[in-house]
Amino acid sequence: xxxxxxxSIKRGCQRVLYWIPVxxxxxxxxxxxxxxxxxxxxxxIDDIGEQIVFLLVYHVIFILxxxxxxxxxxxxxxxxxxxxxxxYSDKELLEREDRGESQQEILxxxxxxxxxxxxTNSGAIRFCDRCQLLKPDRCHHCxxxxxxxxKMDHHCPWVNNCVGFSNYKFFMLFLxxxxxxxxxxxxxxxxxxxxxxxxxxxxTQAKFHIMFxxxxxxxxxxxxxxxxxxxCWLVCKNRSTLEAVRAPVFRHGTDKNGFSLGxxxxxxxxxxxxxxxxxxxxxxxxxxxxxxxxxxxxQDPEQPVSPTGPNPAxxxxxxxxxxxxxxxxxxxxxxxxxxPSWTESETAEDKDKKGTSNxxxxxxxEA
Length: 367
Fold this sequence. Notes:
56% of the residues lie in helices and 6% in strands. By secondary structure, the protein is mainly alpha-helical. It starts with a helix and ends with a helix.
């Protein structure tokens, strides 16, 4: 009892410590609101028109920024569906096998009915020992959350959450609006920051808030700009942070661009098809997070599901689980409609060849 009790106390303390970075950001944002609204706009700006414009624009950006931050923190990361978990009989069968090759045969048999394209570096099926499941494409186990996360990007201490399929759009909007927030404060505070050094401000406590507000906003702008630019590049390439560090492995080998479908489709995979939802922290990403369309020419022979065909596993999952706004196969069909698959074009070419060869054979036979 004592060891388990000490472990639970340790986990409780860790949970509290994990919230410290979030609390720090919340305090910074609360102070910036006080300094900008009260000390700068109300106390230091004399022009009423300038006050109204600054306050209106500021509050629009502030609401979007806080909304995106809230969604990033409190949106639960999505975990693999039950179809990817081992059944009780499969677990027993796997435990009875001592040899790694025999275990891989069992995992390959189970993976045949699942939309899995990626492998380990050695070519084996990706399996999580802790969660006892076959990892879907782009899924990774988070050591902090102790769970497998769909399309895991990274675990962010500043939001105390895993950034993955369910909240990656929110994370991108959080970076965008936080950068816009800092740039707006820096730009509108610059004139009064200069007045501080030229003794143009009255000698009140507002002058110190104005000075520190400018310094903090400008410094955060630099770090946020670099981070936001990096994640914009990842979205354009359809990669996660983990995939940028270590490229995904398919049956034919490593391919860092395996999931890239072109800029437009890569962007829509994260932000969705409806433009009105792009700037809002509302879930609109395409798919279900368990499998993704690829640009691979050599399709996986063990993968029975075509990108535009129905998937029995995802159909069964849809009956027992709540999906995001759009099911996977519908999303894949829409992403791939403009580019026919290699197998379809090859089949058409074969038909043409057969069609042209038949008359020749007939003439030879008649001759």
